[in-house]
Design brief:
The protein is α/β, with parallel strands linked by helices and 448 residues long. It is built from 15 helices and 16 strands. The protein has two domains: 13-58 and 66-77 and 381-444, Urease, subunit C, domain 1 (Roll); 79-335, Metal-dependent hydrolases (TIM Barrel). It has helices at 99-112, 117-133, 147-160, 183-197, 217-228, 243-252, 259-265, 283-292, 300-305, 313-318, 337-350, 357-364, 366-371, 398-406, 410-420; strands spanning 14-23, 38-49, 52-57, 67-77, 79-85, 136-142, 164-166, 169-170, 203-209, 234-239, 273-277, 295-298, 322-325, 389-392, 426-431, 434-438. Strand 9 (203-209), helix 5 and strand 10 form a beta-alpha-beta unit.
Length: 448
């Protein structure tokens, strides 16, 4: 295995032998022991024709198929990261600040560089290839306020055949001049991007309001109009992440019932709305999320890193709300959804809930696809789904190998894989049946 990154496979028709794991339904909380919704098919062949999953079976499909035998490894649908900032790879792991200081000190200066088309195109390619190397094949992405940064991420995703949701960030106040648009320019630029990219291949547009403090009422109202006028478009933003941020929103929008209400009153909440964080929500807010169908992109790595707080997943679902998982890089400290799942376990544990491996994994695969309305295309190994696949090692290194060998049931094995695993466990990544990443294994060669 010496191939370099994203060298295409000879064909998009092949059969893979591995342990297949995906979900047929939400396993729910408290489900570590039972296998509700869990579909584990050990040592099966997954059949892929022209980039689409066409079957799964125990029997060898025969010489008519290009066969790849990965027995003893784990095959999952590619992870879906429902909230991530592509330009923030440049500032991941920046020290010492809560949300608003972190934005001003580290994030905004970094994003200003993306006005340069060369920076934007290089950054987009680096970002998507990094997603594949971490086991993620779909994402909802914030580029920057600059239309060229949105063009760059859409063009890079199209070249890779990737399912991607993105949109030009809107911010017309309370930001550095280099990152500001206006209600008018944001409308014109977003409309042009929608015409260029929305619904083209596997791409979809998200009206992307950064967060309430950086948009005027006029811009929020325009965003609501644009969303209503664009069938199939998403809305992505941030909500209720940090206490200082919330106090600021209250002072900027004194007549709103809550931070969430700022979005609802501008027509921004619906089943295709994905709001990151949702840490500091009231019962009334949770009820409004449930009523409108808007989902929360739970970003535990980011929330721990910035010290933002703990998002109560169980309370939100008990109110009828929907949750997916997200890295929120660069406040999140890794593009690895495995690490993100492990952080979600820690955050939920602090709230008194023991997240099962199943519930966590579902939120990064089928559950995430459900919140985006894409479950027939991504997030599962169903027949008819697009072959966005990731092959994983169960263990990397002697400690994890030992731990895996000691596991006495499937949940124990998968949970230990989540907690100990990261991007080093990724073997190969396929997007629509094209091999886009294959791990270099030279680094393991000296291992005793
Ligand atoms: N709120 C507004 N912008 C951002 C951002 O870039 N990251 C996070 N974590 N929160 C935000
Ligand atoms: Zn974010």
């Amino acid at each position: 295995m010496n191939q370099s990154a994203h060298q295409p496979a000879p064909s998009t028709t092949f059969a893979l032998r591995a342990d297949l794991l995906d979900f047929t339904a939400d396993p729910g909380f408290d489900a570590s022991g039972d296998l509700k919704g869990v579909r584990f098919r050990p040592d099966h062949w997954l059949l892929v024709r022209d980039g689409v999953i066409v079957g799964a079976q125990v029997d060898d499909p025969g010489d008519d198929w290009e066969r790849h035998d990965h027995r003893g490894q784990l095959l999952l649908p590619g992870f879906i990261d429902t909230h991530v900032h592509s330009p923030q790879l440049d500032i991941i792991g920046s020290y010492g600040a809560g949300l608003l200081d972190w934005l001003n000190t580290h994030t905004f200066p970094a994003e200003a560089r993306y006005a340069d088309p060369e920076v934007a195109h290089e950054g987009a390619a680096r970002f998507l290839d990094a997603l594949y190397a971490h086991g993620t094949t779909s994402a909802a992405v914030f580029p920057t306020v600059h239309p060229v940064s949105a063009d760059a991420i859409f063009a890079a995703a199209e070249a890779r055949g990737m399912r991607l949701v993105a949109g030009k960030v809107m911010m017309d106040r309370n930001a550095p001049a280099a990152l500001m648009d206006t209600a008018l320019s944001a409308e014109r630029d977003s409309q042009a991007l929608i015409e260029r990219w929305h619904g083209r291949g596997r791409l979809a547009y998200a009206v992307t309001v950064r967060f309430a403090p950086t948009s005027s009422d006029a811009q929020l109202e325009m965003a609501g109009r644009l969303l209503a006028a664009t069938p199939g478009a998403y809305l992505q933003t941030h909500v209720a992440e940090n206490k200082k941020e919330i106090a600021w929103v209250e002072s900027l929008f004194p007549s709103a019932r809550s931070y969430l209400d700022v979005y609802e009153r501008h027509g921004l909440l619906g089943p295709r709305s994905v709001l990151a964080h949702g840490i500091w929500l009231s019962d009334a807010d949770r009820a409004r999320l449930a009523h409108t169908g808007a989902s929360i992109a739970h970003s535990p790595s980011s929330n721990l890193f910035l010290g933002s707080g703990l998002m109560d997943w169980r309370a939100l679902e008990a109110a009828g709300g929907r949750v997916s998982l997200a890295t929120d890089v660069g406040a999140g400290t890794s593009l690895s959804m495995l690490k993100t799942l492990a952080d979600a376990y820690r955050v939920q544990a602090l709230l008194g809930t023991r997240l099962s491996a199943w519930k966590a994994l579902h939120g990064a695969t089928r559950g995430a696809a459900d919140t985006l309305g894409l479950a027939s295309e991504v997030g599962t190994l169903d027949v008819g789904a697009t072959a966005d696949l990731v092959l994983w090692r169960w263990a990397v290194g002697p400690v994890a190998e030992h731990r895996q060998a000691r596991a006495s049931d499937l949940h124990e094995k998968v949970f230990a894989w989540i907690i100990q695993g990261d991007e080093r466990n990724v073997v190969s990544t396929w997007v629509a049946g094209r091999l886009m990443y294959e791990a270099r294994t030279e680094w393991m060669a000296d291992r005793p």
